[in-house]
Design brief:
4 helices, 18% strand, alpha+beta, 3 strands
Amino acid sequence: MARTPQKKTDDLAFPVRVLLQGLPGGFAKDLGPGRDPHIWLSETYGLGNAEFYGWSTVHERDGYALYTRSLADAVRFLEAFPEFKLADGTESIVYNSPHVTNGRRNRPYKMRRW
């Protein structure tokens, strides 16, 4: 029987997933010695209660995926590591949806009337 990769299992198991932008030099360099997110998560929440993975897409967006069991845990991580920023792709000019075309605009939101 083939073993399912842990990341795939975690995708289904953890209710909260937060995508974070990559750091230019990688977290080992940019966060400094003794500031490893993996160690912080295991010491703070215990093994199996949070995960931290690298991720990338075809659009050359590399970063990290934080998996936690609650929003409060995700917020606590972001407070402990303010160097990480949300990977908010909706700010990109290539982002497209029926409600927002050509990226976000710097103008007030107007509700469409049908």
